[in-house]
Amino acid sequence: MRLKILTVDDSKAVRMIVRKAFRNFDIDILESSNGVEGLAAASKEGPDIILLDVTMPVMDGVEMLAKLKADALLKPIPVVMLTAEAGKENVLKIAKLGIRDYIVKPFKEEVLVEKVARIIDLKPLSSEGARKKTLKDECTFLVVEDKPAIIKQITDGLSNPNWKVHGVATTGEAIDFCSKKVPDIIIISLSLPDDGASVLFKLLRSQVKTKFTPIFGLSVKTAVAEQQNAQQLGVSTLITKPIDFDDFEVKIAKAINLDTSEKYFSFDADFLCIRLPKNATQTHLNEVSAFMKAKASEAVDNGFLRVIIDVHELTNVNVNIIKLLVDSMATCQELSLKYQLVGSPQVIAECKNFEESRNWTFFESMELARATK
Description:
Blueprint: E1 3-8, H1 12-21, E2 27-32, H2 35-45, E3 49-53, H3 61-70, E4 79-83, H4 88-95, E5 101-104, H5 109-117, E6 133-134, E7 139-144, H6 148-157, E8 163-168, H7 171-180, E9 185-189, H8 196-206, E10 215-220, H9 224-233, E11 237-241, H10 245-255, E12 258-259, E13 265-267, E14 271-275, H11 282-301, E15 306-310, H12 319-334, E16 338-342, H13 345-351, E17 362-363, H14 366-371
Parallel strand pairs: 1-2, 1-3, 3-4, 4-5, 6-12, 7-8, 7-9, 9-10, 10-11, 14-15, 15-16, 16-17
Antiparallel strand pairs: 13-14
């Protein structure tokens, strides 16, 4: 069940700031413009926390708070008061009313989130609720590694130009970076000196900003004890050296809810095109397979009647590729989509070596396939 925040404030601007501050969290924001409405909303909705303005028409925050504390069912709800007055006497007066915290207006969004997170367990939007990132979105990766060559290897090895890698060598530098900008993923070398990886992980998880940021542990493949310790700490996943960048990018996509389908699927004027890369690994095939039914269904929903499967770039054909193509054709048939194959002379020749593909018909170019309907 999603948590609920009730904001009671006569200012639409403040209520909008509250809504914006928690837009990336799995939270329902309830709004009231005065104490009377706020009491009614609190009784009906049972919020997990109330953000309560002091000065409001009809019923102000002090009176509403008194009525909350007099109601046995509403009394346990934690209240954070919002006040435009920062005087010591006023703050002390508010604190005596039984609030959990207070914020002086004007305030920054991060201050509000920080204070609320101390009271309720804020969680980011789930993968179902969050907007999927695309390959065109810029992402920042923080690599904490005391070996510059590894940082360079990661920077050079990631294929997406929109992915920015920032490398630091120490725990202090990592904390400093995260205080200014929260990266999409943090990659920590498990071999940092003085148990640095464990210390940094615990520090990051204790901070509101990075509490739920995916953290990858980077380790030599044979350092089993090091990896077991990281798993016990709760790292999101492990990356082993030497780095398999295909596997690395799949784990990145999963961690940040990234839609990678556009690497393989695109919609043209009147057809869905599926393209396999030159050196299609099992990782690539798994990704295509995972997206296939959804993309074929999307094609049908949008009125497309055919699919062109383009494998002309493949340098070799193996049994796993044949299986993927067979499954893709079956999906097309199931949805009444006409499919066409595009392949190079080499691909066509290699397909004749397999029983399933021996009699397949190929076009030798996309232009010929497009022209034949």
